[in-house]
Each structure stands twice: as C-alpha cells, then as structure tokens.
Amino acid sequence: NHCVKLLFLRALFCLLSITGFAVPVTAYTLKRCRISRNKAICTESHLTNIPQDIPARVIGFDLSKNRISKIKVSDFKDLKNLKTLYLIKNNISVIDKGAFTHLIALQVLNLNTNSLTEVEDNLFDGLSNLTELRLAKNHIQAVAPSAFQSLTNLNFLDLGNNKLHSLTQVKSILHYLPHLQYLWIGGNNFSTFQSSDFSSKSTKLRELDLSGNSNLKVFNLTTDIFPNLTSLNLGHCGKTNSMIWEVHNKTFLGRVSNLDISGLNMSLEGMKTLLESLNSSLISLRMSAMRRNVQALINISCGIPSLSKLELRSNGFKAVTQNLFHLCVSVSELDLASNQIRCRSDNCFRSLRQLRILNLKSNRLSSVPFATRNLPTLEELDLSFNEISALGCQDFANLTTLRKLSIRQNMISSLKDCAFKDLRQLQVLRLNNNYISNLNGAFKNYLPNLISLTLNKNRLTIIRKGTFASLQSLQNLSLHENQINRLEPGSFIGLTNLTIIQLQSNNLTRSQINISVFGALKNLKTLHLMENHIKYDTEDKIVDPPFSQLSKLETLLIFAQHYRLKSHLPQNLLQGLTNLLVFRTRNIEILSLHPDTFNYTPLLKELDISSNELTDIPAQLFSQIKNLEKLYVSRTNLRSLDFLVNANLTKLRFLQVRKNAFSVISEEQLQSLPALDYLDMQGNSFTCNCDNAWFLQWVKNNNQTQVYDAYNFECNYPHALKGMKLLNIDFHTCSVDIGFICFMSTSCTVILFLLAFFTYHFLRWQLVYAYYLLLASLFDKKQRNKQTSHQYDAFVSYNIHDEPWVLRELLPKLEGEQGWRLCLHHRDFQPGKPILDNITDAIYQSRKTLCVISRRYLESEWCSREIQVASFRLFDERKDVLILVFLEEIPGWQLTPYHRIRRLLRRRTYLSWSRAEEHRGLFWEKLRQALETKEDPVLQSKKTLVFLKKIFYYILSQHLLQE
Hints:
This protein is an alpha/beta fold. Helix content is 21%, strand content 15%. It has a domain at 787-934: Toll/interleukin-1 receptor homology (TIR) domain (Rossmann fold). It contains 17 helices and 47 strands. It has a 29-stranded mixed β-sheet, with no helix packed on it.
C-alpha cells in the first residue's frame, strides 16, 4: 500500500509540473496589423472589426482606412496604455456606450470621415485625459448636452464638415470643456452665430474655425465670451446670403491676431466694420479667392498699423500695379501665389519697405520681376511654378539680404556665371525641375553662405572640376534624377562642409566612382548612389578604394541600377568607412559576398543586401559587424537561414527575409537572435510537416518577436497542403506531450503493480497449473504431428584447422568401418545457398549433431553458429541429438566466455580423444553407441506428461498445506 501511494503521488506531481504550473504567454503575431515603435498599424487592412490580438503595451493604434462599422464595449478593454487612437475613414455609425471607458491614458482620438449621425450622452466616458478629439466629416446632426462631460482636459475639438444646423446643439461644449483652446465647427449648416447661444464664457479658447458655413447670415456678439481668442476663420461663409457682422464692442475681439476671410460673402461696409473691429490687434490676414472689391479691401486692411502678413491667393490678378500696395507699408509677408500675374510694374513693391517674404509661386512670370530688385529687406523669394526661361546677371541685384530663393519648376536651360553674384547671404537655393544642362561658373565664385542646393530633375550630364568651388558652407547637395555620366576628378573640390550628396538615378559607371572624385568630401555623412550603372567584375581587392577618404561617412546607398548585370563587390570596397552605420546595396545581381567585405565597418547597424543572387551567405560575413541591428535579405533566393547560427548577431532587432527559397525554419536559427523583435518573412512558402512544427508554435506563442503577416504564410509542400495557411495546420502529432506520456506511464505502472499484487495473493496456484498444463499439451501435440525423415546419421561440426583429424580418423571409422552416413560442410553443403541456411538444413536433416571441439573451434564464429542451432534443436525436440567430442583438454576456466558449451557440459556426458590414447577401440565403440541412440516419440511424450503431472501435484499439495 505504501508503494502504491508513492507511485500515485509521483504521477500527480508529474502532471502538475508539466501542465498545471505552465505560465500562459501573450501571442505577438498579429493577423492584419504590425507593430512599429510600440504603435499598432492596421491601416488599409479591410478590417470590419477591431482586432483583439493587439499587445496591451502599445501606446498608439492606427485603424484608418478600413471597413469598421461598429465599436463595441469590449474592443479596447485591454489597451490601458493607449495614448493615440486613429479611426479615420471607416464606416463607423454606432459606438456603444462605455466603449472608451478602458482607455484611461488616451490623449488623441481621431474619428474623422466616418458615418456617425449623433454624439450621445456619456459617449466619451473614461477619457478624462483626452486632449484632442476629431469628429470632422461625419454626418453628425445632433450633440447631446452631456456628450463631452467627461472630457475635462480636452484642448482641441474638431466638429467640422458635419450637418449641425444650430449652435444650441453644441452650446454645452464650452460649459463642460474648461480647458478648450481650439474649436473647429466649420463646414456645417449654421445660419447664425450668436454669443447668447453659448451657455458660458470660454476664457481659454484661442482659435475658432467657422469656415465653410455657407448659410451663415449673422455673426453676433453681445457679450465678451471669447476674451482670449487670437485666431478666427470665417473663410467661405455666407455664400448663399451676404453675412452681417454685429459685434457690439470692438474690445470683444480685441486680441484676434489671425483672421481668415477668404471667399467671405459680405458687403464692403460690413468688411470695413469687421476689419475695424480688429484694428489694434490684427497681424495676419488671409483674403484669398475674394469675389469683389479686392483693391478696396487691400487699402482698408493695410490701414491697420499692426498688419504684417497679407495673403491674396487666387484672386485672379493679371498684373500688379504701382498703387495696389501703396498703403501696405507695414506688411512684411506678402503671398500672391496662384494668380495669373504676367505683366508687372517696375515699382509695384516699392512701397513695401519692410517686405521680408514674397511668394509669387504659380503665376505666369516669364522672367524675374524687375520690381524685386528694389527690395533691400527681402529674405525669402518664391518664383516656383512659373515660365521663367533664363536668369540674367541683374535679376537679383541689390538682394543682399536674401536667404531663401526658390525657382523650381520653371523652364531654365542654363545658368550664367553672374546669375547669383549679389546673393552673398543666400542659404537655400532651389533650382530643381528645370531644364538646366550647363551650370557654367554660377557656383565657382559666389554664394559663400549657401547651405542647401537642389539641382535634381534637370538635364545635367557632366560635373566638371571646381564646379562648386565657392560653396564652402554647403551642407546638402541634390543632383539626383539628372543624366550625369561623368564626374571629373575634383568635381567636388571646395565642398569641405558637405554632409549629404544625392547622386542617385543618373548614368554613373564604375569609372566615375573613385577616390579622385570623392576624396575632397572629408565631412560627408550621407552618399546616395542608387539607380546608376555601377558594376564590379571581381571580389578581389581593388587599388585605391573609392571611399577610403570618407572616414565620417555614416550612410552609403549604392548600386541599384536600371538594368540587370551579374556583379560582385570587391572585398575592400568599403575600406576607410570606419564610421559607417547604414549600407544598402540592392538590385545589382551580386553573386556572392567575400567574408572580409565588412571588416572595415565595425560600427555598421543597418545592412540591406536584398534583390541579389546570394543563394548562400557565409556566416563569417558578420564577424566584424557585431552591432548590426537591422538586416534586409529579401529576394535573394536564399535556400536556408543557417548562416544566422554562427553569425553572432546578438543585437539584431529587425530581420527582413521576404520572397526567398527557404522553406524550413529551425529552432537553432531563431535562438541565435536573442534581441530580435521584428521578423518579416512575407512571400515565402513553407514546408508544412513536422520540420516546421517548432517554428509554428514559436510564431504563435513567443511574446518578444513580432512575425509580420504570419497569418498569410502559405504551404508549398506537401502537394496536398499547397496553398493552405501555415498557422492553420495542426502539428500536434509532431510534438511529444511529456505530461501525457508521464501520466500514462505512471498510471500503467500503478495498474500493473496492483494487478500483480492481486494475482500473487489470489490466483498464483491456478496460473502455475495452467502454465504446466499448456506446456504438456503443446509438447504432446507436436510429438504426435511430427514425422521427420533424416538424410544423414550425423552432421559433423568442426573447425577447418581440425579437418585433418576428421578426414584421417573420424571419417574412415564411422563411414568406412561402421557404415554411418555423415554430413560434412566441405562436401555436402549446397553451393550458392546462404551458409546459415546450409547449417540449419544440415542439422535438422541429420539424426545427430557431432561437435568436434578444440580451442580453434571455440574461437570460430561459424562453429558457434552451428552449436547454437544444435542447442535450439535439442531444447525444441527434447531428444538426445547432440554429441560432444573434445580433441584436447580444455580447462573449465577457459570455457567461461563460452557459456553455451559450459551449460551443455553441466547436463551432458562427452567423449575425450586425448584421454582415449590407450583405449581407442573403447572410444569408437562409445561413439557408435551414441550414434545408435533413438527415442520413441510416444514414450517420450508419456514420460514428459508424467513428469509434469508430478510437478503439478507437488505444487498443489504445498498450496493445500498452506491453506
């Protein structure tokens, strides 16, 4: 009983240790989303419900552009750390009450562009920390009085572009939102705006947007409900009816500094009254897309002494006359973009003595306006999107304070040497998207303070020596998307402070990428050479590596080209780049990488070698870049990820291996990446058998590494499962359930023990009787059925070294004199038949087996087989079929290794040739008698039965005595 208890307790402990104490983990594999910087991104995923597999630790959740129609109470119950939630462009029409109660940390909620029709009471309960709420572009017609009651910390509210028609629907907003600073309610159907519609005063509101309320007829303020308002947007209001402005006291809006009345439909007198209401505070005024009275409005607004920024876009100006801005002496920023200005007066801007920023973008200027030369205070000038075809030497005369100049998207074909001669303070120059094919000497002698120069999307073909010689302050140079096919030695001389140069998408070849070109760029940090025609034919070291002088370079993007050519990377191509952090070389058909390629870049953190022909990657490639954090190896026909095992990438966090040829992921491969938190294997096909069973469980259960798009992984093998999803395959038969095995083995042990215990106590004598009775019955039946005819009298088993004795002594006596028929292996075995079969047939076709034993016999493998078969026959037939003849004396201790013969000697007599030296006749007589011995099967059967019955009666008597 004590033993049974111990076994039971052991089984119970085994089960609990395997199953009961297992700690559940949170899966990190998302069906439709991905995690980036602790934010869940589920945009454009065709979702109809909020996914429930988002980790609780995320602080951002973007569900924009899906098909979600309802938000339920349980949708966000586990996301208590969430701070931003974006639900833009869905079909949300129903939000259950209490749906946001679990989002106690939420700060930003964006529900723009949905199908909400009403904001119900207590809809936002629980969002006490919310600071920004956007409900624009819904179909909201009503707002319940206490809808925003819980939003005590709300700072920004957007209800624009809905179907609200009365301010009384939102009058509780200011009452319940004491910290509100930005209120956008434009694009609705308000017909009047009156201070009496608000239930309380907002002391903190700074910005009010009423734009797009085309039916707004009256703006009426009888009390000062917005004492701190600084920005007011009335753009495109009153389109159906002219709006009436009724502000009883000018001090009510005395702090408004930004006003937008673009497209406002109001009488000139009303406009004048409106502007006079802001006479002491207005700084920025937008009057774009005005219908009429533009000149008069300019004169009125420029009469405001505080006005400094004036926007007049899309007003249809075809010319700027001398008198248009004659009153705007205080204006410092003037925006005339998107008009049709073609003609111009030479003195049209002369009155703007304080003008700093002038925007003439998107007009019809064919040359730089002469009027801009007379603006000595100008700091920014935008002439983009015009029709300027050339730059003259005097176009920017006297603009000595200009810092930013944009002439992009024009029709300039070349630059004169003197084009920028007066722009000594210029810092930013944009000349991209023109037709420039020749820079001449425009940058050889001028622009000493230029920091950024964009020349991309032109028609440059050659960069000559010293082209940028005077640009010693330049930090950013953009030359991408030209047709550059030649870089002369010294092309970048003078650019000692350059940190970024973009040369991608040109026609550069290997010969242009050399030390004489880039050697002058001592402070360069980023070099873009993608989408060119650079190709190396060997992995061997090259003379004068092209980047060997760029010791401060941190980012190198190289070699993506327009056409496919097989190529290599010289093993010392990166020599000198001791501070390189990012290296990308994509789509250049690299066949292999030398193991020493990255020996020169010990600080490398990001490596992209995707879209190449790297069917295999040597693990030694990563031996010197132990700080690698991101690795991209997509579309390279990789057959295996075994290179990861010995790569020692202990800091790798991001691995992308899309669209490769491997199909099995091993435990060893992934466990070699202890810091991995993002794995992208999209586009691979997997083997769906037990080889991937561990990987499947790891994908589902690991809580560290996000496996992107894992639920779309497909099977490629076996054929019957092709196209099925990997995560839908059941691999339970592949795994060993240790708990179940422990339970079953322990249970079986207990049951067997109990059964044996019960049998021993109650059934042991019955079983003993049945056993002996069965033996007797089987033996008797076998003897009755057996009718054996023997071909030989004896089979002689001997070693080849004892053959002389057999042939000279044994054979003449037994066959010659006594007439026995013997079976000898060298004479009677059937040729071509297996030896073991010959031995077995010879023994069973002979009445006796005569073993001629010597020391050689005992060491022979085949002799051992022969005596083994003879022993089996002896025990099987229970007849005297074995005769032992010892040719020499063998001590008992030497027979110890030969247990079968020792066992036979204990139970049988034998003949000794060595002892019969003086009695040879007696020896042969005894051997003859042994060969003559026969057993009567019926008599033997009777003897056996009698013997077994005696044993049974003895056992039974002992049992009765015990009872």
